[in-house]
Amino acid sequence: MQGTMSQSGWPGQNTARALVVLISGALALGGCVSVNAPDKPIVIELNINIKQEVIYRLAADAGNTIKSNPEIF
Amino acid sequence: MSLSFRNTALLVGVLAVLAAPAIAQQRDPAYAAARAAGQVGEKTDGYLGFPVAPTQSVRALADDINIKRKAAYAAKAQANGATVEEYALTTGCLMIARTVPGEKYQAPDGVWRTRTSEPPLRDSRCPPAA
User: Quick check: A70 and B24 in contact, CB under 8 A?
Assistant: First the structure.
């Protein structure tokens, strides 16, 4: 008996669920915002951005290396 | 065997690079001539490459310089907390920017091009030419 009680939950739970579904349904209908998927795929070029940052950071040092080793550059 | 040879070559390269500032040499005449003749060119990865099939002496010359460059890149990359490839690529950006008209360089698509008075075609990540 207790088992069936705990499975069905407290009385009125179904009513509450139905209310929530109704309210959220009404909200969805009321504020209807259409979102279209973009035609182009969204590409996040994280690796390339990081690389460029590194290259910019190293540029001055690399310039010094070239200058101080003229026989190999 | 070949590994230990490579390590020895790398060590020699490191020593040569470390000793270089004191000596402050210029380009070897054979290297300068090979550059001017377009027998060697600057690759995007920071090393010398061959726009045309190299003679044995040109290949040996470029291999020797590339070993020394790699030693320099390795030491400087470690000092700057970067990878050898990152440091080499950065240097490649600068070396391509510093080619003079007539010299060969590799465009981002991998095709060898002859430098003209126009700015060279470089990787989009390269810093502005100084």
Answer: yes
